[in-house]
Amino acid sequence: MKEEDRLSKEIIGAAIEVHRHLGAGLLESAYEECLCKELEIRDIVFER
Length: 48
What we know:
By secondary structure, this protein is an all-alpha fold. The protein has one domain (3-41). It has two helices and no strands. It has helices at residues 3-22, 28-41. Helix 1 (3-22) packs across helix 2 (28-41).
């Protein structure tokens, strides 16, 4: 699997995990904060 594909899969997985725990209907900023934490937990480097 290409590195880009692996990374995309990890990021999508992190976003799904956040949504699964928070559910729908929150402000985007709440999802953003939690997604950033989830990416940190998964050791995925990102920029806000």
